[in-house]
Amino acid sequence: MAKMWAGRFQKEESKEVNDFNSSISFDGVMFEADITGSMAHASMLGKMGIIKESDSKLIIDTLADILSDIKEGKLELDMEAEDIHMFIEAELTKRIGEVGKRLHTARSRNDQVALDIRLYLMDKVDEILKLIKEFSKTIIDLAEANKETIMPGYTHLQRAQPITFANHLLAYAYMLKRDYERFIEAKERMNYSPLGSCALAGTTYNIDREMVANTLGFNGIVMNSLDGVSDRDFTVELASAASISMMHLSRFSEEIIMWCSWEFKFIELDDAYSTGSSIMPQKKNPDICELIRGKTGRVYGDLITLLTMLKGIPLAYNKDMQEDKEAIFDALDTLKDCLKIFNPMLKTITVLKDNMYKAAQKGFINATDLADYLVKKGMAFRDAYKISGSLVSYCINNNIVLEEVSLDTFREYSKLFSDDVYDEIKLEKCTFKRTSMGASAISSVEAQIDDLKKWWK
Count H helices, E strands: the chain? Predict the structure, then answer.
C-alpha cells in the first residue's frame, strides 16, 4: 500500500521500518471510532462549504458501507497498512477516487488519532461501568442473604472482633462504588473533542469544531490546539482507575483464596469456577482468583508504561505516543475480563456459616466486649483490658473459650462479674449490639444496603 506521505521521499520505506512503525495490529480495533469521526468531519466540511455537499454525502455514504463491510467480515484489515486511519482512507479512495482524498482536508492524523482514542475509550468505559454495577449488585444481594452470618473480623490476619459476613462484603461494595465514580469522573474530563487542532497549530480553513463535537456527543472542544493533539492524561487516569479497581479485585481474590482453603473453609467455590490438579485428586483450586491477583500486576505495568512514555515528551505530538494504545487497551480489557468472570463466580459460592461461627468462637474475639462489660460496671478501661487478657490466657491454658469459664473463676479476677456476663459475651450479642453507622448490627447493615441501592438508582 502506497504511503499517504510518500511525496516527500525518494525511496520507499524498508519492510523492517514499516513493520516497526505499523500500529494497525492493535489500533485496528478503533475502526468504528475512526469511521464515525470521519463521517462527522465530512459532514462539517460539506456544511461549511469547504468541500461540495455532494462530495460530503458520497464520502459519508461510502464510509458507512466500509463500516458495514468490516463488521460483516466482507472487508479485512490490511496488516500492511501503517495504521487504521490510513487503511480507512485508502479504502475510501479506492472506492470513490479523487473525492475520497478530500476527506482529510482541515485535519491531521494527529488530531484524528486523538479523537479516535477518546471515542473508543469512552465506549470501553461504558462497558466497564456496566460490569461494575452488575458486580456490586451481586455483592449487595449476597450481603442481604448474610445479615446474620457471624464470622471473625481480622486485623494483622489475627482474629479480632466478631462481624457479619454481610458487613465484610459491603466493604467491597463501597470500593466498587468509588471505582465507578473514578471512571465517571475520568470519562467526564476526556469528553472533549480535539478534532480541528490539526497537526498542532489549528487550520486556516473556516471549520466548525463545535459542530463536530456536538455530532459526536462530546461536551465541548479542547480549547488549546497543542493540548488537543498531545494530551493523553485521560489514558493515565483510566489506567489509574483500572489499577485501583484491580487492586480491589485482587484483595477480594486473596480473601476468597484463603476462605476456601481447608485452614479457613468459610466458603466453597462452585465446581464450574474451580480447577483440579494433574496429580492430586483431592485438590479444588481457586485459579480464577489467583489469575485475577496475578493480572493486577499486569495492569499496574500498563499504568507505569503510560506514565514513563509521557514523562519526557515535548509538545506537541511525538511518535512515542503510539505506545499509549496497547497499554490502555490492555488495562481496560484485563479489568473487563476480570469483572466478567468474578461476578458469576461470586454468585455461585456456598457460604459455610457454621464454620464461620466456630472460627469466631475459637478466636476469643469477644475479649473486648468482656472488657467493656467491666467498664460499664465502673472499672477503668485499662484495668478491664488487663483482666480480660488474663482470662484469655487462662482459657488458652485450659483449652476452653470465654463462654465456658465458670462464674467462680470470673469472680476470682473481679467481683464485678455476675451472671449477666454470659449474655454480654455471646457472639450474637457482641455482633449485633454494635449499632453505630457502618457496623455489623442488622440495622446498620440494612442502612448500608439501602444507601448503596439508592446510590445505584
Answer: 20, 6
